[in-house]
Amino acid sequence: MSHSRTHVPDPQVALEIEKVKLQAMQLKLQYELAERESTKLKIQQHEQDREERGAERVRAERLQELHIQEAREQRQHELQVLQLQQGNPTRGGTLEKVRKYAKENLKNAQALMKSDYDLKAKAREFHEGDKVLAYFPIPGSSLSAKYHGPYTVKRKIFLVIVQLCLMMSY
Fold first, then answer.
1. DSSP-derived secondary structure for 24-80
2. Tens digit of pLDDT for each residue in 109-122?
3. Deepest of 49, 100, 108, 129, by most Cβ within 10 A of its Cβ?
4. What's the whole-model pTM score?
5. Environment class of residue 100 by beta-carbon count within 10 Å: exposed (0-12), middle (13-18) or buried (19+)?
6. For the chain, percent helix, then strand, then coil, each to nearest 5?
7. Alpha-carbon gap, residue 11 to 143, rounded angstroms
8. By the 8 A CB rule, do 150 and 169 touch?
9. Where is the stretch described as Disordered (predicted)?
C-alpha cells in the first residue's frame, strides 16, 4: 500500500495567494467597468454628434428647398414677364394682369422674407431687474427712431410686454 501524500500549503501562504487572486479579480472588474464607461461615453458622444449633424442637415435641406422654390418662382416670373411683353398692351385686361402679377409677387417675396427671418430669429425674454434698451419712434418720422436707455425692467406683464422703470440706470 502506498500512501499518496498531498501537499498541504502553509495556511499563511494560502491566505496570501487568495488575497492576490482577489486583488487580481478586483483589478479586472475595475478595468471592465472603466471599459464599459468609456464605451458608454463614446456612444453618447456619437449620438450627440449624430443629432447635431441631423439638425444641420435639416437646416441645409430647408435652405436648399427655399433656394429651389426661389429659382422656380424666378423662372415663373421671367415666363410671366415674357408673356406680358408679348401681349398687346392696348387689349383690355393687360394692366389688370400686371397689377395682379405684381401683387402676387409681393406676397411671395414677403412670405419668403418671413420664412428666412423665422429661421434665424431668436426668442427674447426679459425678467424683472434686466437692463434693456427701449426703441422709441419719433412721431412723424418713422425712419429716425432711436434706442434709449438702459432702463430696468420693473415687472413682466405678458410674454413680451414689460413695464420699465423710466429712470435710466447705469
1. HHHHHHHHHHHHHHHHHHHHHHHHHHHHHHHHHHHHHHHHHHHHHHHHHHHHHHHHH
2. 999 899 888 888 88
3. 108
4. 0.32
5. exposed
6. 60, 15, 25
7. 97
8. yes
9. 38-57
Q: Which of 150, 159, 169, 170 is nearest to 126 (CA)?
A: 159
User: For 9, phi and psi rounded to 5 degrees?
Assistant: -70, 160
Contact (Cβ atoms closer than 8 angstroms) between residue 164 and residue 147: no
Give residue for cell 423662372. 75
Find out whether 151 and 132 touch, Cβ atoms under 8 Å: yes
Residue 129, SS3?
Answer: coil
Q: C-alpha grid cell for residue 11?
A: 495556511
Separation CA 18–CA 11 (nearest Å):
10
Residue whose C-alpha cell is 435641406: 61
Length of the chain: 170
